[in-house]
């Protein structure tokens, strides 16, 4: 019975995502940014082949595009999770799926899987575009799978972070501000504070973890792929826990 209800709620969430104009706008903007940047990188390297490191591949050329995919998909996840609270559509949603735990699972899974798949697919497309412009770089499968694994973790956890913030705040604007702060503003801001502990604190923020996974850079030298993955995962779980608690314990209009 639970599986049936979960399946029905998941189909409803999938339909809800694609029935609103904002989802198509997000899709077009993210695709234009990610693939367009891949075109620019490909043209730049084709015009100046020596600018690329000797061991570089087309996957490396498209790594920067993953940051645009991350920010775009997180914003998309926030809007998809919080919008019906602002419009009041959450009331008929809960009438359709009164078991809030089921709704939480369906909403989190469908939104996160959808935007992660799209974001990762666009990064693959951008890499293929770079390869088309500079075929000598190559597109080795093994390196691609390793890099895409980090892309999936970063975008997937970022999406869950956005969903959790959206459910916790029940405000698209507030959740977007918090997501931008945690991913983009606070990591470099905290890292540049004149205190010994600042860089360590910055490395524990989700933006630093995502940056390390996507670009291999972080505020401290001892960051590793494992620590970065644990950081973004911890923030994702914490955000979903906070958002889930409010969904389960608070009145829909509260």
Structure description:
- The chain has 254 residues and is an all-alpha fold.
- It has one domain (2-249).
- Helices cover 80% and strands 0% of the residues.
- It is built from eleven helices and no strands.
- It has helices at residues 2-18, 21-47, 58-61, 63-87, 90-96, 100-133, 141-169, 172-191, 198-203, 206-215, 225-249.
- Helix 6 (100-133) runs antiparallel to helix 7 (141-169) and helix 7 (141-169) packs parallel to helix 11 (225-249).
- It is globular, with a radius of gyration of 19 Å.
- The two termini are 30 Å apart.
- The mean pLDDT is 89.
Q: Rg to the nearest angstrom?
A: 19 Å
| Average pLDDT score | 89
Name the overall outline.
globular
Main sheet summary: none
- Sheet-strand content, in percent, reads under 5%
Low-confidence parts lasting 5 or more residues at pLDDT below 50? Answer: none
SSE string, helix = H, strand = E? HHHHHHHHHHH
> Which structural class fits the helix and strand makeup?
mainly alpha
């Amino acid at each position: 019975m639970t599986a049936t209800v979960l399946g029905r709620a998941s189909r409803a969430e999938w339909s809800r995502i694609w029935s609103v104009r904002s989802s198509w706008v997000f899709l077009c903007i993210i695709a234009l940014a990610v693939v367009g940047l891949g075109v620019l990188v490909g043209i730049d390297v084709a015009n100046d082949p020596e600018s690329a490191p000797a061991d570089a591949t087309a996957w490396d050329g498209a790594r920067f595009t993953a940051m645009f995919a991350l920010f775009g998909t997180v914003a998309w996840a926030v809007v998809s999770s919080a919008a019906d609270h602002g419009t009041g559509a959450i009331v008929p949603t809960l009438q359709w799926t009164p078991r809030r735990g089921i709704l939480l699972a369906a909403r989190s899974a469908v939104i996160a899987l959808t935007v992660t798949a799209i974001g990762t697919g666009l990064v693959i497309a951008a890499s293929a575009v770079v390869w088309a412009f500079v075929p000598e770089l190559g597109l080795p499968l093994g390196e691609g799978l390793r890099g895409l694994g980090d892309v999936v973790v970063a975008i997937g956890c970022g999406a869950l972070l956005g969903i959790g913030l959206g459910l916790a705040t029940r405000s698209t604007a507030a959740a977007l501000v918090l997501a931008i702060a945690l991913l983009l503003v606070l990591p470099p801001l905290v890292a540049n504070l004149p205190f010994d502990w600042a860089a360590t604190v910055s490395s524990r923020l989700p933006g630093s973890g995502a940056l390390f996974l996507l670009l291999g850079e972080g505020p401290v030298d001892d960051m590793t792929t494992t620590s970065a993955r644990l950081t973004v995962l911890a923030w994702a779980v914490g955000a979903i826990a906070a958002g889930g608690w409010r969904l389960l314990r608070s009145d829909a209009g509260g």
